[in-house]
Amino acid sequence: MRRQGLLLLLLILATSALSAQSWPQFRGPTGQGHAAETGLPVEWSETKNVGWKTPVPGIGWSSPVIADGLVWLTTAAEVPGRNRSARSLRLLAFDAATGQPRHNVEVFALNSPEFIHQKNSYASPTPILDGDRIYIHFGAEGTAALTTKGEVLWKTKLAYQSQHGNGGSPVLYRDLLIINCDGNGGPGDAYVVALDVKTGKQRWKTNRRSPADQAYATSLVITVNGVDQLVSPGAYRATAYNPINGDAIWSVSYDDGFSNVPRPVFGHGLVYIATGFNQPTLIAVRPDGARGDVTRTHLAWTLTRGAPFTPSPLLLGDELYVVSDSGILTIVEAKTGRVHGQHRLGGNYSASPVFADGRIYFQSEEGVTTVVAPGSQFQKLASNTLDGGMLASMAVADHSLFIRTDRSLYRISERK
Q1: What's the predicted TM-score (pTM) here?
Q2: Residue 1 has pLDDT above 60, yes or no
């Protein structure tokens, strides 16, 4: 227990430099689901520890992002006077202190939306905040940059055809907005592209190797021996690119893997990647010294039983926490892949877990958040239910949890 407490203290101290008031992208400041906040509640309900609750118009599964007192979301809304199938793709902002609406801007309009998966929405990718700018992505339906006053700076559309709608969130790297465009419409329909953040113009584009297919994952920038790599899961293989020019550095193949969703995590000299459908697998890859196809040389270990289709893994200290879509939590020794144990949380899962204030939060699609103590042994601390379903991952800022359900946005705070 002393060792576990020391590890948690070191993790908190290591992340204390992160802005306590901001959650700028999918999975937070590091992109790996870690928050530096303290004073967070363990228990809540519709009548307990709710700072505020506000309705969210339309339908969307983008996660909240937060900075400078505003909470941002995207949504797809019906518009009176347009045909019933039309959707208005909008950027929303709410006051973080009160929940009051501050901005509601139409960025793109869909007159004849394409088919999407029943669990998807037309507004699933999470925005990115950077200073006084916010970058939003609606898949092939459009990408844009706006000011935090709601003014549109530029808009563009990236051509690709996805079978089930948009999914993966963009990544900000220096002056580049990097996006996975994994379509299944034929050769050249799956690629990674970098846009100039000032203009929206293409700076580089790298086609996925054949065969390619649909995927919905968000890339992660890691640093290996002082060199940045963009780890980008795609159908049948994950590739690490040079984020400056899009050149491929290394790749790892998985024969039966597409429709990838989880974002990778990185630590202990390993990058952890979920391979997707049909047989979900979690692989640990050594990126150090990797060049070309490293499937046979740099694969450290593989987890098949309990691997996720949708939720991203969480790396914390020496343990990796993986929740399957069907609610099985697997606690893994991160360096070796040895399984400490598996535990049924209950419900179904799409949102990615978050570590904050010495606890891990797992959100089910049924609106239940299970709070677990870190460590190799499973210890459940609380089970908290809100009205409505949850597929969006929570955000953490200002000593609060911000949770989006299918109808509402909540600020969950410890009530004194």
Answers
A1: 0.93
A2: no
